[in-house]
Design goal:
Structural class of chain A: mainly alpha
Order of helices and strands of chain B: HEHHEEH
Distance between the termini of chain A: 59 Å
Oligomer: heterodimer
Number of strands of chain B: 3
Largest sheet of chain A: none
Helix content of chain B: 40-55%
Radius of gyration of chain A: 24 Å
Distance between the termini of chain B: 49 Å
Shape of chain B: globular
Helix content of chain A: over 70%
Number of domains of chain A: 2
Strand content of chain A: under 5%
Structural class of chain B: mainly alpha
Largest sheet of chain B: 3 strands, antiparallel
Strand content of chain B: 5-15%
Shape of chain A: elongated
Chain lengths: 234, 124
């Protein structure tokens, strides 16, 4: 029984979900092993714990929405810093690839951004103190996307620039409508859609708006539980 | 739910292959699989509970195995024991991987014959 008490305690090193699913079966397996080989069972158990506890911990961390959001945000920040710090067209290409690869690692998380539950836009834009600012920023992106489509000096600039601006504007509005039902995913979408404001770092006001928005989003928390709809109303 | 389509065989690691082969002999609980794998590999593959159930978790997600509610002898068995069996996909994945290994062994043997000797391990 002493062996089993120690092993039961050691199982607490595994993530809760893994322990919940397999803890009892692992204890039974350990009991069978001790019955067959006695204390020598530890010769196999200790290396197994050392190898699989970190494995399961990392897996659980990477699968949690709380972990995915910081990774996604870090990807955006690293990409922007790379573009601003190093400059030049080459580094933009490298940053874009880095960002895309990191986003791809979060594809399951990003896939859950989309769902059928949404609040109407008029409620979404007043759900919290920073939501009107996000709506204004989204509207500005869509406005400048349209201006660019009419004014850009070449077709490439028109198609590429305007598509990006329309997409991020629409993404921010969509994030606002999804946020009461899928907060971490919608928050991620809003933060990503605010990236163009940081690219205009020399203009002072746009990045300042971005910082205020980020402070608002990050301080609003990332609970996965849906908010009651009444909380979305002023 | 299985992550893979029925026609798409997921990649099979060494630990997973040993578990699949063990379950080809019929449904088993964790400790029986662990002992069987050791015996199948002549002691070369020794799994602990973490490795075994970590692999089982992935195999369940991939649809290679399934848990069964049936117990050979419920009176004598501990309720904590969980039994697993192969799915159709798991059986196909095992057979495909074994066929691949067999082909590899055959080719390695033919290299030995061409050179007139079995390749030796460096330093032996």
């Amino acid at each position: 029984m002493k062996h089993q008490s120690i092993y039961r305690a050691a199982l607490r090193l595994y993530p809760r979900s893994f322990r919940h699913d397999y803890g009892d079966a692992m204890q039974q397996l350990f009991a069978d092993r001790v019955r067959d080989v006695g204390a020598r069972a530890w010769l196999r158990i200790v290396p197994d714990l050392a190898r699989t506890v970190p494995q399961q911990r990392i897996e659980a961390f990477m699968n949690s929405s709380r972990a995915r959001l910081p990774v996604l945000i870090a990807a955006g920040v690293v990409s922007i810093v790379a573009v601003i710090g190093a400059g030049g067209p080459g580094i933009i290409f490298v940053a874009a690839i880095t960002f895309t690869l990191l986003v791809l690692t979060q594809r399951e998380f990003l896939a859950s951004m989309f769902g059928t539950d949404r609040v109407p836009l008029r409620r979404a834009v007043v759900q919290t103190w920073w939501a009107p600012l996000a709506a204004l920023m989204a509207g500005t992106e869509i406005f400048f996307g349209t201006v660019n489509a009419l004014d850009a000096s070449n077709w490439g600039g028109r198609v590429f620039g305007s598509t990006i601006l329309w997409a991020v504007g629409a993404a921010m509005l969509y994030g606002l409508t999804r946020r009461p039902f899928a907060r971490p995913q919608a928050n991620a979408m809003i933060l990503l859609a605010s990236m163009p404001y940081f690219a205009l770092f020399w203009a002072i006001v746009p990045p300042l708006m971005g910082v205020v928005l980020w402070v608002g989003v990050l301080s609003s928390g990332f609970d996965t539980e849906p908010e009651p709809l009444s909380a979305a109303l002023p | 739910m299985a992550r893979h389509d029925q026609d798409q065989l997921p990649p099979v690691s060494s630990a997973v292959l040993h578990i699949l082969v063990s379950l080809m002999g019929g449904e088993k609980h964790g400790y029986a699989i662990m002992s069987d794998v050791e015996s199948l590999s002549d002691g070369a593959v020794r799994m602990g509970p973490g490795t075994l159930y970590g692999s089982i978790k992935k195999m369940l997600a991939d649809g290679l195995i399934e848990e069964t509610a049936e117990r050979p002898d419920p009176e004598l068995d501990d309720q904590r024991r969980r039994y697993y069996r192969l799915t159709g996909l798991g059986e196909r994945a095992a057979r495909a991987e074994l066929a691949r290994l067999e082909a590899l062994v055959r080719k390695a043997g033919s290299y030995g014959q061409v050179r007139g000797r079995v390749p030796r391990v460096q330093g032996a």
